[in-house]
Amino acid sequence: MPSGTAEPSHVLAIPAFRRLFAAQVVALVGTGLLTVALALLAYDLAGDAAGAVLGTALAIKMIAYVTVAPVASALVDRLPTKGVLIAADAVRAGAALMLPFVDQVWQIYVLIFVLQAASATFTPAFQAVIPSIVPSEYQYTRALTLSRLAYDLESLLSPLLAAALLTVVSFHSLFVGTAVGFVISAAMVMRTVLPTHIAPERADTFASRATKGVHAFFANPVLRGLLALNVVVASATALVVVNTVIYVRDLFGGSNSAVAIALGIYGAGSMAVALCIPRVLLAISDRRVMLLGAFVSVVGTASAAVVSITGGVWGWLALGTVWFVLGAGTSMISTPSARILRRESTDLNRKSIYTAQFSLSHAAFLITYPVAGWVGAHASQFTAAVTLAVLATLAALSAAHMWSRPHVAAHFASDEVTNASAETRAAHQPRPRGGT
Description:
Blueprint: H1 15-46, H2 50-75, H3 81-98, H4 105-133, H5 137-166, H6 172-190, H7 206-219, H8 221-251, H9 256-283, H10 286-307, H11 312-343, H12 350-378, H13 381-402, H14 406-427
């Protein structure tokens, strides 16, 4: 931001961010409709085997995220970010429009891979450009809060929107809604003025460009600590995503509505933290907040084991409490994590750093999803929760150890000075009336 220019009082007052955030929201709505429509399409084609189809589709999604993201990032490294984002949205819209016409299960798998490969190209590029258009640390934290809220609200509202639409149209029409969301997203990106693309100075090989971000993660102790915290988030999230339906329906004899309520409570915990994060990070360093989030997530995951053997009214109260705690704990890690990525990257390597985070964080789910599902199914929910709690504990201890080294502690100490300076600046700026 040019010297002498007053900083906007709210991050949404920045035109470029406002348009990109709108693009993110409409794309998320489209993705939410896709989730519902895909479940109904799988049941239409596979009947009782729909669960297996959806499980395979979820695995394909994660594999695309892990494998395609670094390759795609290397392929488009020298291309303008705006063109990459628009092209990825176009591919996603095209794949969504083809889904209503499939009549074989394998066709679902192919189209889902194409769509998620495009998402693996879009999302890291989108996340990496935000720091360039929101230069203030305080405003960037608010941008992260809005992004977190968008994800949580999408998980709550998209199923309701889908249910309303299904009263007047067939589920095939939901795919059209998905495509429309991606088209609107592309249009919003097209209208956004983005910073000039900075191409790499050296003629790196394709292999080095594809692995640059991963190498940076393992060479940097701060990013290695973040990598360990990704495992904590994946452990807690997998427990909720995979096994909520088992806790509610099988262990407590609840209804489908109760499943939705339980997932909503988890989202409420995440949103509650996201709303508080901007002001909390003015006084407390990212390191302390994220390690506290790891502790909360570990306690919540371990407590889920107790919930699995608790019945009656107390069981329901315990489930709601633990799910809220898990949502809060994972949000305490996930929301500030992009601040770490921003601080540990430069304009030249930022896209590769964000891509590596996207890929490696989803790689953790390739471990925790099967643990949550298979251990829960073949042993017990108690065993699955304990196993995930042990995994989360080891990861949290690893992160705390890596971030306790002298040079890393000094790094975070300088961040606390930065946060204090941000607090001083923010105290002299007008506060928006509408909250975060």
